[in-house]
């Protein structure tokens, strides 16, 4: 498989990829060149400069994974990627310290006018009176967004004796209190109270243009704006006017609406400090981002769900590893359910019982759907496109969880309507190796380790039935691996699950069904 890297990536990341894949590093491709080349690659790694548009994704016939060697993914059309089943993953904590330190650096730089003083001295001037600044201690830092970067900025600012006020509706008051940060009820409160306003939100439709003319007008005339988040969150024309007219004291900017750019009216103002998107540009951050992005893409190309996948369900936190072990079983249950069900309906119900019921099982919900849909759709299915294709086909998925499970420590039950009735399959993992076992099918409890080729039979519970199955399969040279029987009241109905070394041909099934007492028989392929 081939991986394309379009921006400067740490050598450690490239080396990691080269152990498994062919890697091309092509820097400075134009959008047209990227569209032309992308069709040759299975993986793509970018930073913030490459625009992975719908057009690029349309042309990416082989692409399976996009890795972002950094945090912000606003340069990637995730919706288009998801529709095509392309996994997108980033390196979320790789450069948070770098971005936070750059923020603090810019705050001091603009407060003390360091870049301008530096330039003046280099021009041969010793002008101490021209560069009187302000202190940050005892001032209020207003943070917009208190995620990874914002939290590190807060810590640094508190260390410098600042009061920190933050607006982030998704962070609780309790958490803010534990960080010694005051919680603002609104963006307006931060804008009006802060001496330094620093932005740490991602660029999304909600945050684009968040700091506009009206927002800037709320800031104190002595206040500074710092943006190490994303261009586009600030309306640059409104900012230029506010700075020019003294509505705010200054601004420090690392990011711009259009990048790269060397020309902006903002660059002509003396009370502005700018850097060319350097927030993540430290040796340490680049090493981490390069390696993490490479690991994410490598995992995705191996068919795994990488830990930082953005558009696939990743089990997180406690129990993540435990939950992941059930993915194969759940996919098998989905496949079996489809193959044992006549005209499956559109309402899939999944129950998790026992310890598994205590965890985030979204990965498993998708695994069951993936198994169920495999034979219904022509597109290759994966964890990214399965929920979308399931929805497009009108599949409704309902899940329930309970910590109680009578016979097994863990049990997954999948049900779907069929012909007015319901078809049910259940499975579990057992033993130190967490081996999968099917424990319910065709309305009976049974117990068998699933294999690639199986035969499921419904019969009357009368003597000699097992022997007849053995004889017919033997006559056709089909070797039986294992067999499990499930029965109701003696003499009523029974079911058999048989593992075989090769697929059972339809002709064999027809011969079996000619024998009185056999009511249904189906050859099933599970992997
Ligand atoms: N200049 C640079 O080189 C770098 C820039 N960045 C930018 O910084 C951003 C933040 O990074 P992290 O802190 O790691 O992300 P994060 O996801 O940990 O934090 C973002 C925070 O913003 C909050 N938020 C989202 N929408 C909001 C809204 N409308 N109003 C208020 N709060 C809102 C979220 O609740 C979250 O707590 C990234 O998305 C990226 O764009 C990150 C690294 C380097
Ligand atoms: O990680 C981020 O969000 C950044 O903005 C860093 O961008 P970069 O990788 O330096 O192009």
TrEMBL record:
GO molecular function term, any single one: NAD binding
CDD domains listed in its UniProt record: ACT_3PGDH-xct, PGDH_4
Domain of life: Bacteria
Catalysis performed (reactions): (R)-2-hydroxyglutarate + NAD(+) = 2-oxoglutarate + NADH + H(+); (2R)-3-phosphoglycerate + NAD(+) = 3-phosphooxypyruvate + NADH + H(+)
All residue ranges annotated as the ACT domain in the record: 454-526
Example GO biological process: L-serine biosynthetic process
Alphabetical keyword list: Amino-acid biosynthesis, NAD, Oxidoreductase, Serine biosynthesis
NCBIfam families: PGDH (TIGR01327)
Homology family: Belongs to the D-isomer specific 2-hydroxyacid dehydrogenase family.
Protein name in the entry: D-3-phosphoglycerate dehydrogenase
Organism in which the protein naturally occurs: Rubrobacter xylanophilus
